[in-house]
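Problem 3 from the worked examples.
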Amino acid sequence: MNCRDVRPLLARYVDGEIDSYERTLIEQHLTECQGCTAEISQLRLTRRRVQRELKRWADSAVPPASARNRLLAKLTAEEASPSQPITRHHNVLSNRILYRRIMLLVLVMMVIAAFVLIARNIL
């Protein structure tokens, strides 16, 4: 593999999202290419910084009291009323919607973290 082939795969390599065959080819290339090795180091550093900023941001995030009150009210209402049986189709659809919402939230958090890092001249 050459740099042109390897570079698009480096982020996935750092995140552990490639198969063993690609990993072997990339690692072989990295033994011969200082440029791609340096890019891997930069990607790992950026990943650690983003993770650190997201953790710091998440640790300092406090939901408003009104959210807690709404949640408790909803839980109380659900306990008081008999629940409807959940069909398999409804459950799968709900899980898919929940998954998409979580992924959207993660994406938004990563964009915010990137802007914070750029604003602080970290990236």
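Problem 4, a separate protein:
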Amino acid sequence: MKSLKDKKKKGDKETFELPTEVDFSGGTRGRFYRPKKISTTMRLDDDVLTFFRRIASEKKTGYQSLVNEILREYKNKTESDSLKASP
């Protein structure tokens, strides 16, 4: 890639050339991805909610974040298991 000094100016706009091929083999997929949070209402049994609030309090985190983390782990494990089972 050209340094800023090496870039040729065309009018007020800088111009540069992209390489014909780019190697992304060392890249990390989804590195800057952050899932969008969606507000929803869930009806949980009292004992389940109390459990998550207690654990969240011990970990000094929000109980909703804890529930989201556990659901995400379950989702990832389920997806991983289904991929392994597929021929």
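Solution to problem 4. The longest strand covers residues 8-10. The radius of gyration is 24 Å.
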